[in-house]
Amino acid sequence: MEAIRKKYPLGWINHTTKVPLPGGSYFFAITLDTEEASYLIKVPVKIDTKSDKDEDFFDSTLDMKENDEREEDEDKEKSQEKESDE
Length: 86
Description:
This protein is α+β, with helices and mostly antiparallel strands. It is built from 2 helices and 3 strands, in the order H-E-E-E-H. 0% of the residues are buried.
């Protein structure tokens, strides 16, 4: 444990490696090298999954951005029409 703390003083979560297994499954591991050997240590990793709530949030954010862009385009068109009328 001391060697792991020394190699990863700020934690190992950003240093994991995905190790594929036969059959399409996989696990995550970190490496630890000593003078005697190199170790591949299996570690637990929680995978975030996208929920319907997240998808709705991102969709609504994109819709708001598209609406803003449309309004900006309309404003530009109106100002160009005013300039051409004058």
